[in-house]
TrEMBL record:
Principal subcellular localisation of the protein: cytoplasm
GO molecular function, one term: peroxisome matrix targeting signal-1 binding
Protein name: Peroxisomal targeting signal 1 receptor
Gene Ontology annotations of biological process type: protein import into peroxisome matrix, docking
Family from the record: Belongs to the peroxisomal targeting signal receptor family.
Subcellular location: Cytoplasm; Peroxisome
Organism: Hermanssonia centrifuga
One Pfam family of this chain: TPR_19
Keyword terms: Cytoplasm, Peroxisome, Repeat, TPR repeat
Length: 485
């Protein structure tokens, strides 16, 4: 009974066989002769088998040899069998009828028939898989099991209770997960930020799957998805990084960037506020600012409706640094808030100030360009996009932004080329998944925004044929008709 206590198959749980075993275990039934009878109806004579059974079962002082209780064990084939401990089983569950002999008792025949059904259940087509399924299992039961499995996949137990885990969807059949070495494998033995920075999405997803509790790996994956114009995946990865390590300051700034790109002003504000609260370096400056501004009720955007108080706090943090050095992260945090408030001139100034500290940061060049473009200065934005691409030619977001600025400047042919290049780069992180019919299905994630923008270019160029291909999102057909080798 202990071995099968977690078995939930309805046929097994409701079987008379299991009921009899429970009654035997609980001493509610005993064997007299060739029948099983309730304890109260058993023979009460001193020599009765039932009396001896009860007596031996409770003999804890070693007086007399207790009868060995029936046990249910599992043989090498994974089949349950019933027998006494330290002796051969009395009932063979393999289905070989000759073990019962020619004079098979009625109760033995019952056990054999009922157990054969159970054996067939365990020997079903999915008996080697993680989940056993009987062909007679009701659909409602299977649906309930499927729901439980989905809940298991999306929830986890944490120190603060049960909560959903990151619902980041990994690409299936990732060659790096399946064993193919990363091109950076020999250069880096640990998962550091530097080693993860230039890896592909597939490599980073493999790194996360191998070490799912590494906040740095999740952060690097989120930033890479930002660069690859996959904002929702970036949000999932960055949130997971912060679930694992709420003190990871770069992840808070990256999350604020993703919320800004996603049009979530409240999310951007909260991410910057969390970055301030977890920033140990400026703790004294933040406490001093709060002390001079009362209980800081207006520090919450829900109270004020704007981020003025948080902007002032960031400025106080910058002024508190007496070293004379510029903290680029403070400038980035200020620029994000300025962008959400549509104060684009101030946001540009903050980003360019950060660039003075980090002149090789391609993300900052792209953000300056995007700020200029948002302010209606698409022509001025081009040079920043080009500079970002010089530093990182595989920067998909910069290529897409460059295409959008060209559309705004009515340079549709040039815009279509830039957007197509971005789609080709996105397609490079696609896993070929064999379909049931033998064909190859691409399971990578390509941005619908890129296809819609490319379709706009095609319509402006009077290329209806290419616009139709954009609707199908068929990259190979588009490149062929676009005369791209």
């Amino acid at each position: 009974m202990d071995a099968v206590q977690y078995e939930r198959n309805p046929k097994f749980q409701n079987s008379q066989f299991l009921g009899l075993m429970k009654q035997l275990r609980d001493r509610e039934m005993v064997v007299e002769g060739d029948t099983m009878v309730p304890v109260e109806e058993a023979s009460s004579t001193s020599g009765g088998w039932a009396t001896e059974f009860q007596k031996s079962a409770t003999d804890v002082k070693g007086k007399g040899r207790a009868l060995e209780p029936l046990r249910m064990t599992v043989n090498e084939s994974g089949i349950y069998s019933i027998g006494a401990q330290n002796r051969p089983t009395e009932f063979d569950l393999s289905g070989r009828s000759e073990v019962f002999g020619p004079a098979e008792e009625e109760i033995d025949a019952y056990f054999r028939t009922d157990n054969d059904d159970y054996i067939n259940y365990w020997r079903g087509p999915e008996s080697q898989g993680a989940r056993f399924q009987s062909s007679t299992t009701p659909p409602a039961v299977l649906a309930e099991w499927d729901k439980l499995q989905r809940d298991w996949d999306i929830f986890e137990a944490t120190t603060t209770g049960i909560k959903p885990i990151s619902n980041y969807q990994f690409q299936a059949n990732n060659p790096y997960v399946l064993g193919e070495a990363s091109r950076h494998h020999n250069m880096h033995s640990t998962l550091s930020a530097a080693s993860l920075e230039l890896q592909s999405v597939l490599e980073l997803e493999a790194a996360v799957q191998r070490d799912p509790y590494n906040a740095t790996a999740w952060f690097s994956l989120g930033v890479k998805q930002q660069e690859n114009e996959r904002e929702q995946k970036a949000l999932h990865a960055l949130r997971r990084a912060l679930e694992l390590d709420s003190t990871h300051l770069p992840a808070w700034l990256a999350l604020a960037i993703s919320h800004t790109n996603d049009g979530n002003r409240r999310g951007s504000y909260e991410a910057i506020r969390s970055w301030v609260q977890h920033n140990v370096r400026y703790r004294e400056a933040v406490e001093a600012y709060r002390a001079s501004h009362g209980d800081m009720e207006d520090f919450n955007m829900a109270q004020t409706g704007n981020s003025d108080s948080l902007v002032e706090c960031l400025i106080a943090m910058a002024r508190s640094d007496i070293s004379g050095e510029i903290d680029a992260d403070i400038q980035i945090a200020l620029a994000i808030l300025m962008n959400t408030n549509e104060a684009y001139d101030k946001a540009r100034d903050c980003f360019t100030t950060a660039l003075a500290v980090r002149p090789d940061d391609w993300q900052l060049y792209n953000r300056v360009g995007a700020t200029l473009a948002n302010n209606g200065q698409s022509q001025d934005a081009l040079q920043y996009y080009y500079h970002a691409l010089e530093l990182n030619p595989a920067y998909i977001r910069a290529r897409f932004n460059l295409g959008i600025s060209c559309i705004n400047l009515r340079r549709y042919q040039e815009a279509s080329q830039h957007i197509l290049d971005a789609l080709v780069l996105q397609d490079a992180d696609v896993v070929q998944d064999p379909a049931e019919d033998g064909t190859e299905n691409k399971r990578g994630v390509v941005s619908s925004a890129l296809w819609e923008s490319l379709k706009t270019c095609c319509m402006q160029m009077q290329r209806i044929d290419l616009a139709t291909i954009c609707d199908r999102q068929d990259l190979d057909a588009f490149r062929l008709n676009y005369q791209i080798l």
